[in-house]
Specification:
By secondary structure, the protein is an all-alpha fold. It contains two helices and no strands.
């Protein structure tokens, strides 16, 4: 059955990153370093923040609701795209053929 498949096309050479892409990468790495430094300074130096039970509940609910909102919006975008609702927004755009 594998013999019936057409041969694979050769992979194109990888493209080099532009200056803007490198700038974004450097910014994100610096942001990661700053957040890790903040974590170390707050939690590992010994000044633990005191959070009440109400604070933990609020933080947990905020986390769960934020994740639910993010998952729900992503699901809606995929659902809209797969069921043709996006076609009405741009009627001149052709849908790619699905195999």
């Amino acid at each position: 059955m594998a013999d019936d498949l057409p041969p694979l096309a050769p992979k194109p050479p990888p493209e080099r990153l532009s200056g803007g892409a490198w700038l974004i990468i450097v910014f994100l790495v610096l942001l990661l370093i700053a957040s890790l430094a903040g974590f170390v300074s707050v939690f590992l130096v010994g000044r633990f923040p005191v959070i009440s039970m109400h604070g933990w509940i609020a933080m947990g609910l905020g986390t769960v609701l934020s994740l639910a909102l993010g998952f729900g919006l992503m699901w809606l975008s995929f659902y809209s795209s797969r069921h043709g609702f996006d076609d009405r927004a741009d009627p001149g755009r052709k849908r790619p053929e699905s195999h």
